[in-house]
Amino acid sequence: MQVYYQNLMGCLIKSGRSLIKSALALTFIIISLLSSQVSASEDPFDEKLVLRRQTLVVRDIEKSLALYRDAIGMEVIYDQVIKRPLSGSDREQVLRLIFLKASNQYTGVLGLVDYEYGYPDHPAHTKPIRHEGFTPGNSILVFNSNELSESWPLIEKSPGVKIITKPKLTTYPGYGGEGIIRVMVSKFYDPDGFLVEMNQLLDPLEPQ
């Protein structure tokens, strides 16, 4: 009888080990599948239509970097000085093109371009800055951040930034008209007069 129980316990232990190995293998397969789906969804070539980037033509690219990179917290993923022959002129055009990402390197990318980089006295750099507000013909860059309280003091100190509204609570109707969405909303002009909102969501976009 003792031998019988010993054999039974041995079989149960082996079965338990097999179940654990199977469960671990299944977990690994699920994680791999989910990872591949996430990677694929981030690849713009797998999407029918992607809003890839908005590029801002700027007067002083260093001022723009002080805002978008240093204060808002975007990451530079491309930075090149490009030289080209300038049509109708005996000089070459020198431009600097920068791409910055938020959380994704394929979508929601912000471009900065100075078409007369290295020529600070060029008329393009002295063109008057227009602060026209929320009127037709003007676009708005909208950022969502979970660190608005940390980034806002840096935004206020960025050179050339003009504050419209400090962060304040604003509510919007929920998607499908269900409930409300609370957002801390701030508004300002960047150094070139582009409108920017730096916001923080306080409620999920979809009803829970």
UniProtKB/TrEMBL annotation:
Pfam family, one: Glyoxalase
Residue intervals of the VOC domain: 50-201
Entry-linked CDD domains: VOC
Domain of life, per lineage: Bacteria
Annotated SUPFAM superfamilies: Glyoxalase/Bleomycin resistance protein/Dihydroxybiphenyl dioxygenase (SSF54593)
Protein name (record): Domain containing protein
